[in-house]
Each structure stands twice: as structure tokens, then as C-alpha cells.
Amino acid sequence: MVLPKAELHLHIEGTLEPELAFELAERNGVELPWAGTEALREAYRFQDLQSFLNLYYELMAVLRTERDFEDLADAYLARAAAQGVRHAEIFFDPQAHIARGVGMGTVVEGLWRALGRSRETHGVSTRLIMCFLRDESAESAMATLEEAKPYLDRITGVGLDSAEVGHPPAKFRAVYEAAAALGLRRVAHAGEEGPPAYIAEALDVLGVERIDHGLRCMEDPALVERLVRERVPLTLCPLSNVRLRAVDTLADHPLPAMLDAGLMCTVNSDDPAYFGGYAGDNFDAVQRVLGLSQERLRELARNSFLASFLEDEEELRARYLAEVEAYRWHDTEGAE
Ligand SMILES: Nc1ncnc2[nH]cnc12
Ligand SMILES: [Zn+2]
């Protein structure tokens, strides 16, 4: 679906398609344990978040040089643009690269080569959000923030990702305080596999402005009421939730109930190379399977721009919002 939209929940390492992975492996002399792209795709059957993360971190071995990160981001931006993404706020996981001997500068400068020219090359504006791995220590997160200081002109905010259960947001209180003091925006994954209490904790202790996923808020009516009242954006990822078994099937996804409850939902792709679809594919899927109306889809697109970190470019945000309102459905889209 090419309805104009912002993508607010996208891990750049999760856009590594098997074809590019093998190309980079060859370029860098990295041996992969799969015979080819088909065998690698066969491995994309996940039981839960951890089983996905194991493969996601393993395949990162092929990303070594600035050019690799540039090619990765360029490939994502081209695919996203073709599906109506006009603005992308892109996560990256520096600790996963630094642990392999690939420095912060290689990652940020490589990504920036693609992001810095993306409005001209792809018609997509971008922001970069640095995520801390929550299954690593708070000290490691603080050291990562320190390493990022030379690159803060390229980085808009910080996030929190990786294995959620057993790693509550409060573990990262100090690093989020330090990030806020540096003028960085704050988001965090919460309520994907972890309990609703993690969502409240991310708001109260970390001061986040958006919740990534937030799916499990529906188990706590008082929390839902708060999220509605405070208009906290939730960056939902429906196809991800199916592949990582946070929901049984897409038909069971609570998105319609969440919208009916008045929650400020957005729809995103998370790790599209692994979960079977980019942003537009996620919109197509929820339209087709959950029967969302054209007005609901337009609301999701509007929310994505309202929840984006475009405060320094309000004119651009206004232009995107006008594009959402002016959008005319194609014959095959959003039929009612
Ligand atoms: N869906 C997800 N949840 C937590 N960490 C992630 N890292 C990449 N994708 C993720
Ligand atoms: Zn995610």
C-alpha cells in the first residue's frame, strides 16, 4: 500500500535480505553456515523473540565496512520508498557491531552516507535512533552512549531493544537520564513479550515519548486508559508479532480493538527481511485480514507523522500530513 506513511519502528540490521547477506559475505570473505539464500530463508521459522535474535545477531557478521552499512541502508530506503514510506526513523544496534570489532564510526558514518542523501535519492527523510541492548549491562549502555558522543549530530534519539523479559526498563535509568541531558529523544521497546508493567516503567522511569510495540498494554485497562489520555504513540508491528508468536495469527491481532480504545497506534515493519514484509506490506495485511476501513488506515498514517520526531522540520511534517489527507485509494487498495 503506497498510502504516505512514516516508519517509526525499523531495525536497519533487520532489513538485511538473504541476497545482500551473501553478497556482503563474499565481499568480506565471511563464511556463512547456510548453503545459499534458500537454505537461509528456511531458517526463518521462529518460536519466539530469542530464537529470532540468535539468527539476527549471527547474520550481522557480514556487515563490516562503511560501504556495507551504506548498501544496507540504501536497499532499505529504496524498498520503503516504493511502499509509500516518506519518513523513516531508523534503529541501529551499535553494541552488536562493537562486540565484533566494528566501531561506532564505521556504523554511523556508513549509515549516514545513505541517510544523508536519502531525500534526494529516495524521497525519504530520515532520523537515526541508537538502541541499547537490554540483555547487556547498564554499564555497557553507558559506555556506548559515551562512544556515540562524536556522532550526536547524526543521532536523534535512543531506544532499548533485544531480549525483553527479565530486563526491565529501570535497569537503564541512568543512561536514559544521561541521554536526555544530551538532548536526545527517548523511546523503548516494551510490552512485546514483557508485561504491561514494563510499559508504565518505560514512561515513568525512562521518560520515553513513544512505546515500541506496547502490544501487551491490552491486558491492563488502567494502563490503556493512561496511554489514551496521554496520547502515547505505540509503534506496532503486526507481521513481526505473528512471526515471533506474540499473537497466534494475524486475525487475532488486537490492532482493531486498540484503535477502538482510542490508542495512538502506528503500523511498522520491525525487521522486514525476516518477518515477511515492509511497511506497506504490513498495511496491506491489516487491511486484508483485519478489515480495517480506509479511514482507519488513514488514521494510522496520520498518527505516524504526528508521532515522528519532526519537530525541527514542522513544514515538512505539515506537507506529509497534507499528503495523507489528499491520498486517493487505488482500485486494489483499502476497498470497503
Ligand atoms: N522485535 C524486536 N524486539 C526486540 N529487539 C529487537 N531487535 C530487533 N528486532 C527486535
Ligand atoms: Zn523492534
How would you describe the overall organization of this protein?
This protein is an alpha/beta fold and 336 residues long. It has one domain: TIM Barrel. The protein is 47% helix and 14% strand. The protein is built from 17 helices and eight strands. Strands 1-2-3-4-5-6-7-8 form an eight-stranded parallel β-sheet. Strand 6 (210-213), helix 11 and strand 7 (233-236) form a beta-alpha-beta unit. Helix 8 packs parallel to helix 9 (173-181). The chain binds adenine and zinc ion (ZN). Its cofactor is Zn(2+). Substrate binds at residue 271. The record marks 213 as: Important for catalytic activity.
Describe the structure in brief.
This protein is α/β, with parallel strands linked by helices and 336 residues long. The protein has 17 helices and 8 strands.
CATH class term = Alpha Beta
Largest sheet report: 8 strands, parallel
- Order of strands, main sheet, comes to 1-2-3-4-5-6-7-8
The N- to C-terminal Cα distance equals 15 Å
Number of extended strands: 8
Q: In the residues, how many domains can be counted?
A: 1
Strand content: 5-15%
CATH architecture: Alpha-Beta Barrel
What ligand species are in this complex? adenine, zinc ion
Which key phrases capture this entry?
metal-binding; 8-stranded parallel sheet; alpha/beta; binds adenine; A_deaminase_dom; binds zinc ion; Metal_Hydrolase; 17 helices; 336 residues; single chain; EC 3.5.4.2; nucleotide metabolism; 8 strands
